[in-house]
Amino acid sequence: MGSEAGEVGCSSHVQVSGSNGRFVPHIRRPVVSRFLALVAVVASCAFVIPAFSAEQPDDCQSFIDGFEAYKQKDFDTSQGKLRGVLEKYPDSPLRDVVLFWLARSYYKNGNQLEAARYMSTFAREYPDSPLLALVEDDLNGLVVRYEKGELLPTLAGKAAPLGG
After folding, report:
1. How far from chain centre, in Å, is Cα 21?
2. Do β-strands 152-153 and 159-160 pair in parallel, antiparallel, or remain unpaired?
3. Structure pTM?
């Protein structure tokens, strides 16, 4: 896994630290830095996904499947695959990106409660992640509301009590 020249697998997952990614919805981050951070994430995924082989661990394959479903806007499948990684491999080195994309999948699918819950977990567990710069202001606002204990709509549009 990742040992052949030019081959990159899930084990090449890079964590960069040093940014202060606290949720502050009233501060707008520059569009250019968001764009560059998104390009970096997409570029890293471009190396991970084609390099999959039978040697890749199951958590990596499930993440790849979930991310591919997200890209195809199949959010229900994406959520199932990504939740599976968290359930089956709670100590996976991919946990940070799984939480991030799972929160985004719920957000894109309209489930504000689950989006806020997973993004809140991501921010709490990985406060220095550069991915925090990519979080939409609306999703940041949902996290703030979630952490205050406000009721947020689920996919069905009904507010659900927070267990947060």
Report:
1. 14
2. antiparallel
3. 0.67
